[in-house]
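lol ok so funny story. i was supposed to be doing the assay writeup but got distracted and ended up predicting the structure for this chain instead. priorities right. anyway since i did it might as well share w the group, maybe its usefull for someone
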Amino acid sequence: MKTEWMACVVFTSSLAFAQAKPKTLAEELNGSALASFEQAKDLLEHGDFATAHAKYKQAYDASKNPRLLWNMAACSTKLKRYARALAEAERHLREGQGKLVPDQEERAKAFAADMRALVAEATVTVEPGGATLVIDREPRGVVEESLTVYLDVGSHDVQIEKAGFETVRTTASVQEVGVTSFRYVMTPVVVATPARPAAAPAVPAPAAAVLPVAAAPSSSSGLRIAGWTSIAFGVAALGGGAFMHLQARDAGAAFTSKCQGAACEAGAAALYDDAAAKATTASALYVGGGALTLLGAVLVWASPSHEAGSPRGLRVDVGAASVAVGGSF
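and the output, tada:
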């Protein structure tokens, strides 16, 4: 009876030990995560720590098993990437909370303490906050006001990005282990604005012009007809110039009403172009009308109907909205 009781105790203890024994990491993985894990083990045995780290990371990304972070930290240590090893060890502890056995947890804490003595604890401040921080092509998170990161001694490529601001690309130099800090101020992106059009060109009203007509030899009556015809076309052109002058002035006023200070509303540029075109047309009509009127006056003077000694001359008065022609021939 005593022998049977002892045998029962031994069997029960063996069963309890078997149930308490934790699974190996390989037993917790499957599929692509297990395949990457096995490849990493082979690479580790052959001293290829960089590729082994990459394979362990593939296994972690596929399974999110926190125990793989410990293997990644071991590879980082072999590569003398102490800051990365520390970050991976801390994630191992944080994500493995409640899943690691006490020995694994104590081992990881001791390892993290050893790594802190080999790296710099850098506080990165970015103004304004909300920027993405990338160091040595590895994302480190979003800097709301400040962010603490671990850095190895040496130079590091820093890139900071935020919508609406120019990307910061610089180098951070860590001279020694311990506590350090870096501060960066981002510059807003300047959006180019179109240049404000110049003020609408003023169209000067032509002054009254007196066109003297000198004495000329007699001519046929056809010259008088041609002269008055030229004068008629000239006066019509001058009238058209006066009309276009008013149109240009109104367009210029409309353009001015759409601009306040240095800012112009939509369509202001079109009004400016319209005012300029009408001003150019008015000037051309004024010049052409004046030339035709002058030519007509000369032709009328050349006609044989003038009395000797009578004053001869042509007067053209152009107002803002009217044209008057007078004189004696």
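Residues 221-257 form the longest helix (37 residues). The CA atoms of residues 216 and 302 lie 6 Å apart.
back to the writeup now i swear
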